[in-house]
Amino acid sequence: IKTAKRLGFSLDETAQLLQLDDGASCVQARTHAESKLAEVQLKLADLHRMEAVLSELIHLAVLGEAKSVAR
């Protein structure tokens, strides 16, 4: 349960997935997994955009520091 929570699953989602673990509801389990995957993919896209912006900010700051030192 701790691992599921750390991975972004709510307690309700974890309980639902544990109930589906018996193999009787594969379609429902797949639907839940596909939905969670879509959420994760959106978060990853946002994180990649944040990474690019932060990298650019760091690059500009380094250039600014280099200009200050050169003066």
Give structural notes.
The protein is mainly alpha-helical. It is 85% helix and 0% strand. It has three helices and no strands. The longest helix has 45 residues, at 26-70. The chain is rod-shaped, with a radius of gyration of 21 Å. The termini are far apart. The mean pLDDT is 85.
Cα shape? rod-shaped
Rg computed from alpha carbons, rounded to a whole number of angstroms: 21 Å
The stretches of 5 or more residues where confidence is low (pLDDT under 50) are none
Query: Main beta sheet: strand number and arrangement?
Result: none
Q: Helix tally?
A: 3
User: Topology as H/E string?
Assistant: HHH
Oligomer: single chain
Give the overall average pLDDT: 85
Helix content: over 70%
SSE-based structural type = mainly alpha
Strand content: under 5%
Number of strands: 0
For the termini, the CA-CA separation is 57 Å
Structural topology:
Layout: H1 2-6, H2 11-20, H3 26-70
Key structural traits:
single chain; 71 residues; 3 helices
Quick recap:
Helix content is 85%, strand content 0%. With 71 residues, the chain is mostly helical.
